[in-house]
Design a protein that fits this description.
By secondary structure, the chain is mainly alpha-helical. Among the domains are: about 40 residues; about 180 residues, no CATH class. Helix 3 packs across helix 5, helix 12 runs parallel beside helix 15 and helix 16 packs antiparallel against helix 17.
């Protein structure tokens, strides 16, 4: 690493103020801080010393979401290989087929390796395009503003890729992350100033702009000629009886062995990520618990096995296991920028998201998922929640001291 350090130090004057490449200082800083700890330190007082910084926070979030990605890749491959077996397809053409042969992977749905490699070949292109397109906008805005390239995009890009179907066209992947980064974050000043979650903004844009490619029965399993509805879609049409008749068991839903987006199907992986984020104090446990409570309470109160509304027949344990509810509660709702700040606000914010998710799922049959819109609506109300909570605290203190 010493030769790299010497090389970076030798070219630093070119990117410093007055240097030949001054306009590209943000790119130099991005590369330098990627490999080495920043040399800048706080010298004046008062200040707080801590071993954690933004980069380490983002790395921990990525680590926490990695089990979701790994199980998601296995599940995508499992769904694809199972579909091929049911259709009698023995191999696939194109670069994916060549790569599977090169890596010694087959199409056996009973093989963990075959499933994982097959799913990986769908995840990697989406993630690479996400990083390239979103990274371009991040670097462009940082260069124009002469700001450092913020590490927050690494989390945004990772989470964005995990909430897309494996069949999403790559040009739509690029368009969605561009919309999320530019319209959802940069127009408001960049990381720390956005009031909406950029990854969800990009996903919502794609959903409403291109619903054919982001919904329906043919988008969840990446095999031409095969259709498979998500568990929520089946329940929205046929209720719990239809969902159980489809062959899906709760253990499969808990592990994540069902149709869905790339990395949001596994409740087990999401709970592991939640435990990791809560233990490291990166995510607010109040938000996570409140989102789950906001979903579970109305489901307990209003669910009925003989209701005329199919979604009313779904019990709470299935609500939290299917769809992207757990992933959204753990990784999206806890975004520290778009969430409120006070402890009481965290609880109100989480309850609002959970209840809205249940309402959208049950009352609106055209949109059985719910968690995406619920979080975005919660983001919009977060400043207002903070305002009323703080004002209430001020009035209580004034009254106490009067």
């Amino acid at each position: 690493m010493k030769p790299l350090r010497k090389f970076l130090d030798s070219i630093e004057p070119l990117f410093s103020r007055g240097g030949r490449f001054e306009k590209f200082e943000a790119i130099y800083e991005m590369v330098d801080t990627l490999f080495f700890t920043p040399a800048d330190v706080t010298r004046g007082s008062p200040h707080v010393r801590d071993a954690i910084d933004l980069k380490r926070v983002m790395i921990m979030v990525v680590f926490a979401a990695t089990p979701c990605a790994l199980i998601g890749m296995w599940n995508v491959g499992f769904q694809a290989n199972s579909a091929m077996a049911s259709l009698g397809i023995e191999w696939i053409d194109g670069w994916r087929g060549s790569m599977l042969a090169l890596l010694g992977a087959g199409y056996d749905p009973g093989s963990v390796y075959d499933n994982f490699i097959h799913g990986l070949l769908y995840f990697l292109p989406i993630y690479i395009v996400t990083m390239a397109a979103g990274g371009f906008w991040e670097v462009l805005f940082a260069s124009v503003r002469n700001h450092e390239v913020n590490e927050g995009f690494f989390v945004t890009s990772f989470l964005y890729a995990l909430i897309l179907p494996a069949t999403t066209p790559l040009w739509q992947v690029a368009l969605g992350i561009s919309f999320g980064v530019v319209i959802g974050k940069e127009v408001f000043g960049g990381t720390g100033k956005n009031f909406l979650n950029p990854a969800l903004v990009g996903r919502a844009f794609l959903y409403f702009a291109y619903p054919v490619q982001l919904s329906g029965d043919a988008v969840w399993v990446p095999i031409d000629g095969y259709t498979g509805a998500t568990a929520l879609a089946v329940a929205a049409n046929e209720g719990m009886s239809g969902l159980l008749a489809s062959g899906l068991t709760y253990s499969q839903a808990f592990i994540g062995q069902m149709e869905g987006s790339l990395g949001e199907t596994s409740l087990a992986a999401c709970l592991f990520g939640a435990a990791m984020l809560i233990y490291t104090r990166i995510a607010s446990w109040r938000i996570i618990v409140s989102v789950f409570a906001g979903m579970i309470i109305p489901a307990l109160l209003f669910s009925s096995g003989d209701s005329s509304n199919p979604m009313m027949t779904m019990p709470w344990e299935w609500h939290i296991a299917v769809g992207g509810f757990a992933f959204g509660a753990v990784f999206m709702a806890t975004d520290p920028v778009s969430a409120p700040d006070t402890m009481l606000s965290h609880i109100i914010f989480g309850l609002l998201i959970g209840v809205l998710t249940w309402v959208i799922r049950v009352i609106n049959p055209a949109f059985p998922e719910g968690i995406m819109l619920a979080i975005l609506l919660g983001n919009i109300f977060a400043p207002l929640i903070d305002y009323f909570v703080i004002r209430a605290n001020v009035r209580r203190r004034v009254k106490r001291n009067a």
